Structures are given as structure tokens and as C-alpha cells.
Amino acid sequence: MKAFKYILLGFTAFASLSCEEFLKEEPEAFLSEDQYYKTQADAINAVNAVYFFLNSGGSSIQTPYNTLFNTGMNMAGDDEDPGPGATNPDVRSLSVLAHSSTNLRIYELWQQHYAAIKKANVVLEKVPAIQFDEALKTRLLGETKFLRALYYFNLVRLYGDVPLILEYQKYVNAADYAIAKSPSADVYAQIEKDLTEAASVLPATYASPNVGRATAGAAKALLAKVYLTQASLPLKVSAKYQSAVNKAEEALSSADGGTGTYGYDLVTNYAEVFLPAFKNNKEHIFSAQFKSNSLAQGNNEWPRSILSGVPGLNGNYAHMVRFYTQGNDKFFSIYKLYQKGDKRRDVTFVRSFTSPTNGRKYALTIANTAVPNDSTPFWNKWADPASTAVTNQSAANVPIIRYAELLLIHAEAENEANGPTAKAYKSLNRVRKRAGLPDLTAGLTKDQFRDSVYLDRRLEFTYEYQRWFDLIRQRDAAYNSTFVTNQKKVGKTNAAPKHVYYPIPQSEIDNNASLKQNPLWE
């Protein structure tokens, strides 16, 4: 695993500039910006600073793939709720779709992504002028374009039209920072450009200690997802379905009908996708990297899903499944959507915790007349058996895109472009077979196949920061959004079309006269 070191540019410098070391806690000198960006080490550290926003965490900061996507996004969906340990009013308002433009988590999502984009723009302006190995320079610039594309991809899906900032802003006058929103189509065009350029220069693989950095295969896989998203709602650029098929096949292995030579494949055991002992395996195309108990670079999600009060475990039960009524079961949840024999269920969830102190099992039973002996399922994907009981920080990486998703992107896009062909069935059945499920029924209509892909996406990727984005883009047979319907199914009766996008943070509008609120939030 790559041990990225991060810096605050223009403020602190460190005695050692090796990219193999983590950030030192005590600064040893101060540098102005003009003194920096002189060496190869400066360039490496500047790029590492762009990665910083994927995985940094701690008591005072949440970054997108370390808790923030959960507290600021998952809670607004149909699978998850804040548990008893989640007392933050902004999180709880999101969970009932009562949020507003002043919601702190909505602001933090905006701020964190634009802070990362700013650092990417710094790299793209400053690093080309530094004299060092040209091959390494080209690679670093490719990594930066990949990351900028990823951050913009998140922003445009969360907020719709957003300011498209592509240069390093170092203005004197505040008015110069007043930038209007760009149409989503323009933002997507830039995302495509960055990913295409990144794919053309990035390597296929890395050796230690650089494993975990963006690769050419990752750029192609993410681009396939970008095409699929544009073809879906709300943009409905249907021609992009075939683009998604073609790009996915550039990353798929030959055994799966592709031309990719990146060595990607499904791991046999679904649990190995998440267990730290198997991180960066052949299924991980690109992931946020975590290292337990090391300078706030541990995955903080695990303790949030552990039942509080278990001796020897530091759980606060802040994240729980969303219970809703289905039939006569008032405690239905995503846990009960899994078919009998689906191996993913008992990796994704646990029903009890064993105390490392006294060996006893702790669970929350449910008095459910519809389901005898019912009990509460707890999220388990980021569990780390090797982590200390003191902090429960996990070293589990968070997959941002993995091979199972590439297969499902291919299956969905192929179905939309050409119908439920043999290619579409093959890709979907690969994922189902690993889950222990039979092949999908032959002879389905396009609409039936689409619904099957949607369900397998939900079950495969739950708690991986995918569901909200899927809720936004998915549709019914008539190309109508299913967002409101899906939210109301789980009891969110106030769900409305405006909730598809977040409001622009009010503080940003107050500081930028050119920035206008999203229409349905005005």
C-alpha cells in the first residue's frame, strides 16, 4: 500500500520529502509559495496533497471517503439511518430530507471537493515548470487529472450545475473569485477530457510503495461510469450508453469479453474485497487507501457501525440500517432484500458483537411479530480484525471503483444500448455467481433486466457510497425518475424532485454574487 504523505502548501515543509513517509506531526520550517515547487520531491508531495481528500480523517475533519459521504449523503438515501450515537442535527435532518442550504454537511461536501480541486489546479500549473524526470512528471500530471475528474464527478452528481474552475486562483480582489455555475454538460465534458488524457499517460500497474495510485485502467473504468451516468437521468444523453459499453470493454479482461490487460478480476471470496489483509487485490481498480491508527489515516466508519456498550469495543452505533414497513413486517430493511444463500449478506452485516473483554455476545433483539427471533443487523464492511480495541480505526480500503462495478456498468449499458444481449447477461451473471446466486432468468425484457441490474447494484455496493448516486440516476421503463418512489417506499413521505440535488451552500452564495441557488431550492 502506498503511504502517501500530505502537506499544506505554502505553510509547512518537512525535513524529509520522501513520498514513502507519512506526514510528520511537527513542522520544522516555513516556506513561502515562491520557495516551493522547485524539486521532484515538491512535485510528489503536491500530488499527494490532492490524494489527501480521499482518506484523511480524525476528530476534527471528515473527508468524502472517510465518513463524510456517510454522514452527508448515505443518510439521505433509502438504506441507512443515523443510529443513537449520531446526534448531529445536520445529519439527522438529512436523514428525513429536512435539510436546507445551511446544512453543515452539505457545505462540507462542497468545501472538501473544491479544496481538493484547488490543490489539483496548483499541481497542473506549477509542476510542469519543475525540472525533473519527464516520465515521472507526466505520470504525476496524469494522476492529478484523474483526481480532479473524480472530484468534479462527485460535485456534478451532488449539486448539478457547479462552477468549473480549471486554473490556480491566486487573485488579490475578492470579486475575482465570484465564478458562476457552468452547465452540467460542460462539467462532464471536462471530466471526460481529464480522464481521457489521464488514461493515455498513466501506467497499468505500480510497484510498491506506489500501489494505490491512479492507473490507466482506473481512468478508463471511471470514464465508463461517467458515460453511463450521463446516459442516465437527469441528462439522458442516450448515445453515451454505447460509449460506456466500449470504454468498459477497454478495461474488462479478455475472459469477460474485453481487451483490457490490467489483470482485473473478481476475488472468489466476497469478504476479501474489504478485509485489510487483502487490500489492493485484483478487484480493486481504484480505492481510497487507509492505514489503521496512523496519523488520522484510519477508516473511521467501523466504530460508527458497532453497537455501543460492548466491553472492549469502542463502538458508538451512529450508523444503522433504515427500518421501514413492508407487508406486515415493520422492521424491514435492506438486510431482508438478500435472497437466501446470497454470500454478500453475511459479509455486509453482522447480527452480534463478541466482547474481547469477556467473550460474551451482544445484540439488539427486535420484538417483531412478523419475524420470530428477529434482531438488528449492523454494517460490517469496514471491520478490521487486526485493529486495536482502543480506537477501532480500520485499515480497510474504500473501493471507489472495483471490478464488480465495471461488470455491472457493462451489463447495464449493454442492455440499454442493445437490449439484454448475451454480453449483458454474462457480465451480470459473473457478479451473481460470486454471490452464490443462480444465473439470471433467460429471456428477460430490457426493463426486467434493468431492474435486475439495479437490485444487484444495491446489494453489491451498499454502504460503499454508491446508493445515493444510483437513486439520482435510475429510472423506470418510461424513463421517469424513480427517486421519489424509492424514497417513499422506505417511509420518506416528504421526498420531492428537489431532493435529487443538494442546495448550493448558502454561505457560498453569500460570498459569491455570481453563484445562484439551484432552482427548486430558491
Question: Any overview of this molecule?
Answer:
- By secondary structure, the protein is mainly alpha-helical.
- 38% of the residues lie in helices and 6% in strands.
- The chain contains 16 helices and 10 strands.
- It has helices spanning 40-55, 68-72, 89-95, 104-126, 134-159, 184-201, 216-231, 240-251, 301-304, 345-348, 403-418, 422-434, 446-461, 467-473, 483-489, 506-511, and strands spanning 80-82, 284-288, 319-321, 324-326, 329-332, 349-350, 353-354, 361-362, 378-379, 398-402.
- Strands 1-3 form a two-stranded antiparallel ribbon.
- A hairpin with a 2-residue loop joins strand 4 (324-326) and strand 5.
- Helix 8 (240-251) runs antiparallel to helix 11 and helix 11 runs antiparallel to helix 12 (422-434).
- The longest helix has 26 residues, at 134-159.
- It is globular, with a radius of gyration of 23 Å.
- Pfam families: SusD-like_3, SusD_RagB.
- This is Membrane protein.
- It comes from Dyadobacter beijingensis.
